Amino acid sequence: xxxxALLVAGKDLRIELRSKVTAGQILPFALLVLVLFAxxxxxxxxxxxRATPGLYWVxxxxxxxxxxxxxxxxxxxxxxxxxxxxxxxxxxxVFLGKFAALAVQLLVVQAVLMVGVVVxxxxxxxxxxxxxxxxVAATAGIGAAGTLYxxxxxxxxxxxxxxxxxxxxxxxxxxxGATRAFEAALDGVPSDGWxxxxxxxxxxxxxxxxxxxxxxxxxxxx
Length: 222
What we know:
The protein has helices at residues 2-19, 21-41, 46-73, 80-86, 91-121, 128-154, 159-170, 172-186, 194-221. By secondary structure, the chain is an all-alpha fold.
């Protein structure tokens, strides 16, 4: 299963590197969201300082919808999805591979967004261990849930509009937990953030387990 996961993740990442969609479209979109939030809330005001963690993770969720849609739209034409089903790959491996490729892209986007938070919002990155752990745990949950709901919507003609309605409510616990953990880290009280990190880790483990067990059935139905 791990070999199949590496094959699928490598395929998706090579496609992204060659097409440069993440670097040329998704990253600029994410930074544009941060800039617009900064203009809306006054870059020198306390409101922007208080809202920074929430704005950061809202921007990440916007990017997630685009990345999930992109991940599955690549296989919607020319019978690619049928070929994937008939290739003899373990369904759990396909899930882990697409999940890993999506997570890598999201972590790259988050690293750039974090630079944007420092430059545009003027925030100091205190408690870097909590920030890093929260990003990894939240990204794992987002990637696992995004891959599950992405394949669920992949076979539908209205997947572009349906996917946000399916995915964003499911990711509400991640948005809340990651925002609270970032608030604790940026405010210099990391001890308040670790319980939220534990919640994010449980969310990621549950969705990863569900994905490994159910992805094959969902792929057959898509």
